[in-house]
């Protein structure tokens, strides 16, 4: 797996690793389960996902999953991932999905992580970053707006969930 480490001095992003499983499970709450995970995690499931992520890094696959790490100790505060191919995306669009553990929310870490991962996506050939958000998820809408994303189209996921798209052109640079 490549050594990718992105940092702005407050937040550090690096690929998820197996020793993150316990912290991830401890940080999982109802909000993350409902909006991102689709169900409560198990150690076996989380470890299988992290191994899948490592394989994606090793093979330059379309998924790049990072741990969002905070402070000098780089404590796992959440996750953020990029998908360079996903249903509904046009060529050059990259999906950004993120979640912070409850004790880390409200500190601006998600916005910082989105900005860092957007720069990385641009360096990997991404032309537009897309954040798809349920309309009632005010916190994620605020993160997208603070990170310079503009409202885009509205769609429904396969299960019928309404999604509002927020888009940022990566070709004009990211802060």
TrEMBL record:
Gene3D superfamilies: 3.40.630.30. Residues 11-172 form the N-acetyltransferase domain. Pfam families: Acetyltransf_3. InterPro entries: Acyl_CoA_acyltransferase (IPR016181), GNAT_dom (IPR000182), Ribosomal_N-acetyltransferase (IPR051908). This is N-acetyltransferase domain-containing protein.
């Amino acid at each position: 797996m490549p050594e990718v480490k992105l940092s702005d001095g407050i937040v550090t992003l690096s690929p998820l690793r197996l020793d993150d499983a316990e912290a991830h499970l401890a940080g999982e709450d109802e909000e993350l389960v409902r909006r991102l995970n689709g169900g409560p995690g198990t150690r076996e499931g989380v470890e299988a996902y992290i191994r899948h992520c490592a394989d994606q890094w090793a093979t330059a696959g379309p998924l790049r999953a990072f741990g969002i790490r905070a402070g000098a100790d780089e404590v796992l505060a959440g996750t953020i991932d990029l998908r360079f191919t996903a249903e509904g995306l046009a060529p050059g669009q990259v999906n950004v999905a993120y979640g912070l553990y409850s004790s880390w929310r409200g500190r601006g870490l998600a916005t910082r992580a989105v900005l860092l991962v957007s720069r990385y996506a641009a360096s990997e050939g991404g032309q537009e970053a897309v954040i798809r958000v349920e309309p009632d998820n005010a916190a994620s809408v605020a993160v997208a707006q603070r990170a310079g994303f503009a409202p885009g189209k509205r769609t429904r996921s396969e299960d019928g969930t309404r999604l509002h798209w927020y888009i940022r052109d990566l070709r004009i640079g990211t802060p």
